[in-house]
Amino acid sequence: ELKVEQNPLFLSMQEGKNYTIYCNYSTTSDRLYWYRQDPGKSLESLFVLLSNGAVKQEGRLMASLDTKARLSTLHITAAVHDLSATYFCAVDMEWRLNRDDKIIFGKGTRLHILP
Amino acid sequence: GAVVSQHPSWVICKSGTSVKIECRSLDFQATTMFWYRQFPKQSLMLMATSNEGSKATYEQGVEKDKFLINHASLTLSTLTVTSAHPEDSSFYICSATQTSQYEQYFGPGTRLTVT
To answer: A103 contacts in B (CB within 8 Å)?
Structure first.
């Protein structure tokens, strides 16, 4: 069974602190996505990671991918309140088979940043 | 570019009635569209994948006779929830991919409440 596991599922942190969200997946893939979701809203694409060792940064967020370890991380630097949201990772499982590019989502990490 | 719209953004209907949700790609041709359902504080669950001009592929456990999907053109897919019940109340999100591309572009979602 294909699994995408995120941890932690809930994170409350102080502004100014650093933290990392982890995303493990159970099968071979080298295409991984990070999304942000605000309450009542749809998904906002943050990062697309396409190869082993890929690292992308946008503002206070940095994402990386280790396909050998089947692990991606989303690192938050000097958190600010505006980053409070739910963050999902998702893995594209079937593109190698030339089938529809289904993506499997993790359960999400609810991030609450205290001012 | 790559904008996906959904209509309506929210809908309230009575038990036993049917409701149709539209998903449109506004500035690209979407060969594949995906329909997701999201319950409060949970992740997105893929319901079905639809390709233009062919029958949708439903995920295990999703009733195809209850959730009718039509992808009649390269810019429009519809999801009809038939004989809706309160347990069908959820946030429905569609996404679309462009021809020969892999990244999914998500619509803003439709909140369905069945009374």
So the answer is: 46, 104
